[in-house]
Fold this protein.
Amino acid sequence: MPTDLPNERAIRKPGSMELDPTAEPVAIDETARLIASNKVEGTDVYDRRGEHLGTVHNFMVDKVSGQVAYAVLAFGGFLGLGENHHPLPWRALTYSTEFGGYVVDIDPGALAGAPSHGPGEDAFADPGYGGRVDDWYGTRLAPA
Amino acid sequence: MPTDLPNERAIRKPGSMELDPTAEPVAIDETARLIASNKVEGTDVYDRRGEHLGTVHNFMVDKVSGQVAYAVLAFGGFLGLGENHHPLPWRALTYSTEFGGYVVDIDPGALAGAPSHGPGEDAFADPGYGGRVDDWYGTRLAPA
């Protein structure tokens, strides 16, 4: 499927997924260069103004290349009720030590129109889904 | 740090991280090409004879490139007691539909001599740790 990832090294700031190195017990699962998968899951996500949007539900990995393709953000809902899952190109997330979570530099209103699916939905089983996510964010993401 | 990953696409079989497509609720988090991070964590790991070795505790992702670098396997112990964490190059894991988990094609006895750390240990904070893992498995791993 089409993806921006081949260019990612060039367009995104190094360490943009970095969690707060001063926070414990991050040190257990994080190094300067590597981060543990379970440290990314559940991390808070904010808009550029620091408004809390949701959390990282999980992220999708390309089984062949081992490349992280999408971060799936869980927005809204309470205990999963009414919760909605928004897959974003992985490069869309930048870690903010100020907010203590990832920042998505996209108008929250615009996010409402982005591809999304229900928590129990098998959205990525549609081979075109990832491509639609790439296309939707391709023009809206400021190069990190 | 040195890593075998740049050659991974060439040396490992496509889909080697694939979970059993017939199992539910895998369909919710897996596609032919992508797998969800939380589906990899907790997956059983066997030796080539189908002997259960442990489970995937988590995996380490390169924050800059978004590339999965190491799978951290949890071996032994009961409820975490006496458990030991063995980081393996990601390419070392091949999914077996026969065993319903990942297979590590390495002599279990040899694994005892591989780099490992305690569950609470900040092993990857040592910049040389990943390199030692790469070196140890580099000569022992059959190209997938």
In short: The beta strands of chain B are 34-36, 44-47, 52-62, 68-75, 84-89, 93-96, 101-104. The two ends of chain B are 22 Å apart (CA to CA). The mean pLDDT of chain B is 77. Chain B has five helices and seven strands.
